[in-house]
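Lecture notes, part 5. Sequence design as translation. It can be helpful to think of inverse folding as translation between two languages: the language of shapes and the language of residues. The source text, in structure tokens, appears below.
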């Protein structure tokens, strides 16, 4: 057998599979093993599973954000998950990822199973069914904080024997002169709650010289509830310089009875262990409390400590390495020296640096023009990013993404996001956006509701689609069709509610947690409820691309971050300058003799004019009928020729030229729709009313934005806008005037003359 040459660490595994006796591979799966296709990888893993004594099935797949193609696949043990009783949440799997060469390469492999491996078809192993001791602990409810429980370890005063078969954590932790844990962790140990398991493992770590933190959690694909948790050594991972990728951990799995059982345990550390840790530093004693959200939430940021009866501020984890602060501080100081509008802020928690926020002068000025609809992109959470980098992105007058601000987010707590949004207000002179696209995470929802109470929060499409795929994969095709029809094609709130209730009743989903959550948050993701809010036309059918594309990703090293960041930002701004040049130097062709087309060509940028022109041309394919009139108000039914199903209602007021359409295109995108234009043609209105040409879409949006707030804005907003406009204009004078001595003299004379006029008018 000949194995073709591949890059280092890669082997063409399918050759091996087909080359052995009876087609069965004798090669163990390993990271770096390469295949010609994903199907070849599945065949290889299937043969391996058959030889080892377990079955496999196809698990989750991942798609590229750029073109939607499948980028990686997981093949899992048939006992993965908990959707049916025979499954045990087995973690064994391989994941293959497509490379630029077109090969599929194993990039992740978990070999160990949490069940006995035996010939197919036999009953579950006996140890899966036997009962094991239950760790007991006391629970104290806190009435002042609704929906929150505090788990408190009681002082070791009660010396009565434990009930038969029950392990008492308070006795386990401090028995013996040395305070060593009497009961070592083992697979099968049972706890009443996840918190009790955490207390136990925390005490075990303290007694053995290592610290513990909360690791990954896993949720049910069916109802979203937490099914298992990992508690890891504090040196697990590499996100911080102090971490060394330690593999020690304890994983617990929720049982049908509501208890939690240790199903996986690794005790070996790859670093030295200290001596027994002191009470105030590690072990859970009477002065330590752990907060557990009633909805199964369990996060390290919720750890609070009580000293002398006073609660101390919650400890929060920080995902930003210490080196990044030094690097950014130097960068910020250099930027402030050359850009007087540069703003940055660092969150400080108990004397520790946490999240970072920054925006240069150009971004802050852009916010004064295009800060009405913004995207808070925290897509770093979708993968194991080394740096939790987030961006605030708007849409400029060319319909291009424009950077408004950036941040590094220390943790995913409400505190971090609240600080972030409040800092945004400080940097942007108190400007609140009309709408914001951000993730569905509860912490983000709470922060937006608190800081931007009047802002419409729309969920990120990639997150909604990912959760939909998980849920819909469990349902039949009939449900999927009805679900899409309900969510995408409902025209009124009543129509949506009726269709949603039909789904709940027909498929017996009234008690389904995911369906309940999605209905309660329908205003943040259902197109019907989003159309009435201005989102600058950001599509509801496709995800927003990352502003920096592939320049900044999980592998970006610290030494290259700033240079890549500035290169990506400059590329985007160069694209904007090109569109500015095209708008002022090129002219779109007129395709009708309508005066409104010429009016909008003079006003709009090229990109926005093309959108308007398309609507104008489409308006000729529609018929309009007056169906109601009372005084100055009239109502029209506008339908497409040859399609009675496509119809909309246009309401028009002759006294003030106000017009609305049931399609709500103007409310959502800021450009009049074909239905309104058809009614204008019927009424022989030859010019678009000025209040329906948004200044943010015009070719002069970069200037003159002060007029937009003269009537409705506050004095503070007006002053801030004037300052940003003047500062940006002055920067352009400086940039152009410093190109040569002659241009300097000209620019200086212009500014000097302007200064004299300003002085005379004072």
């Amino acid at each position: 057998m000949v194995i073709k040459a591949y890059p280092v660490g890669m082997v063409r595994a399918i050759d091996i599979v087909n080359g052995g006796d009876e087609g069965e591979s004798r090669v163990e799966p390993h990271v770096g093993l390469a295949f010609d296709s994903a199907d070849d990888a599945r065949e290889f893993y299937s043969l391996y599973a058959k030889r080892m004594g377990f079955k496999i099935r196809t698990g989750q797949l991942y798609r590229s954000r750029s073109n939607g193609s499948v980028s990686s696949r997981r093949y899992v043990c048939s006992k993965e998950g908990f959707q049916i009783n025979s499954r045990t949440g087995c973690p064994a799997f391989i994941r293959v990822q497509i490379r630029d060469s077109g090969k599929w390469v194993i990039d992740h492999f978990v070999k160990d199973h949490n069940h006995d491996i035996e010939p197919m078809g036999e009953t579950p192993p006996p140890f899966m069914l036997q009962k094991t001791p239950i760790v007991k602990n006391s629970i104290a409810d806190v009435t002042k904080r609704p929906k929150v429980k505090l788990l408190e370890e009681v002082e070791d005063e009660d010396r009565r024997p434990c009930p038969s078969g029950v392990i008492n954590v308070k006795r386990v932790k401090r028995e013996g002169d040395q305070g060593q844990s009497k009961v070592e962790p083992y697979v099968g140990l049972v706890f009443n709650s996840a918190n009790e398991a955490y207390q136990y493992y925390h005490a075990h770590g303290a007694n053995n010289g290592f610290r513990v933190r909360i690791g990954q959690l896993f949720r049910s694909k069916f109802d979203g509830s937490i099914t298992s948790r990992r508690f890891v050594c504090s040196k697990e991972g590499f996100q911080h310089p102090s971490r060394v990728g330690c593999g020690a951990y304890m994983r617990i799995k929720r049982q049908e009875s509501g208890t939690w059982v240790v199903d996986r345990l690794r005790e070996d550390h790859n670093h030295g262990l200290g001596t027994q840790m002191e009470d105030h530093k590690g072990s859970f004693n009477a002065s330590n409390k752990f907060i557990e959200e009633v909805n199964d939430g369990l996060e390290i940021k919720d750890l609070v400590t009580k000293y002398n009866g006073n609660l101390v501020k919650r400890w929060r984890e920080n995902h930003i390495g210490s080196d990044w602060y030094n690097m950014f501080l130097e960068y910020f100081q250099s930027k402030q020296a050359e850009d007087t509008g540069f703003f940055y802020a660092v969150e400080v928690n108990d004397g520790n640096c946490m999240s970072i926020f920054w925006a240069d002068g150009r971004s802050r000025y852009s916010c004064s023009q295009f800060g009405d609809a913004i995207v808070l992109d925290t897509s770093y959470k979708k993968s194991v990013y080394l740096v939790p980098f987030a961006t605030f992105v708007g849409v400029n007058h060319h319909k291009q993404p424009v950077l408004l601000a950036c941040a590094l987010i220390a943790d995913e707590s409400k505190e971090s996001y609240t600080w972030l949004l409040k800092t945004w207000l400080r940097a942007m002179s108190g400007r609140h956006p009309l709408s914001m696209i951000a993730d569905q995470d509860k912490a983000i929802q709470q922060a937006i509701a608190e800081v931007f109470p009047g802002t419409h929060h729309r969920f990120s499409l990639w997150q909604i689609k990912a959760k939909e795929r998980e849920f819909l994969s469990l349902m039949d095709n009939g449900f999927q069709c009805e679900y899409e029809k309900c969510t995408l094609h409902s025209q009124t709130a009543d129509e949506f509610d009726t269709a949603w209730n039909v789904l709940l009743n027909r498929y017996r989903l009234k008690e389904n947690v995911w369906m309940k959550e999605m209905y309660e948050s329908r205003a943040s993701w259902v197109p019907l409820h989003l159309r009435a809010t201005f989102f600058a036309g950001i599509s509801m059918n496709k995800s927003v691309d990352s502003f920096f594309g592939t320049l900044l990703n999980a592998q970006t090293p610290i030494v290259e971050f700033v240079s890549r960041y500035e290169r990506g930002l400059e590329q985007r701004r160069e694209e904007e300058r090109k569109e500015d040049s095209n708008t002022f130097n090129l002219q779109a062709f007129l395709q009708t003799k309508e005066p409104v087309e010429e009016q909008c060509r003079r006003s709009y940028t090229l990109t926005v004019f093309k959108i308007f022109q398309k609507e104008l041309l489409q308006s000729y394919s529609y018929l309009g009928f007056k169906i109601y009139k009372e005084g100055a108000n009239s109502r029209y039914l506008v339908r497409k020729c040859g399609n009675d199903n496509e119809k909309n209602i246009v309401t028009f007021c002759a006294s003030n030229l106000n017009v609305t359409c049931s399609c709500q295109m103007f409310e959502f995108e800021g450009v009049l729709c074909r239905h309104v234009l058809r009614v204008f043609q019927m009424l022989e209105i030859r010019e678009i009313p000025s209040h329906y040409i948004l200044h943010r879409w015009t070719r002069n949006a970069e200037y003159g934005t002060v007029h937009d707030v003269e009537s409705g804005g506050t004095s503070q907003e007006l002053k801030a806008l004037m300052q940003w406009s003047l500062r940006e204009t002055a920067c352009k004078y400086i940039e152009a005037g410093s190109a040569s001595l002659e241009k300097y003299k000209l620019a200086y004379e212009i500014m000097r003359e302007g200064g004299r006029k300003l002085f005379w008018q004072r």
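The translated text above is only one of many valid answers, since several sequences can fold into similar shapes. The chain is about 35% helix and 20% strand.
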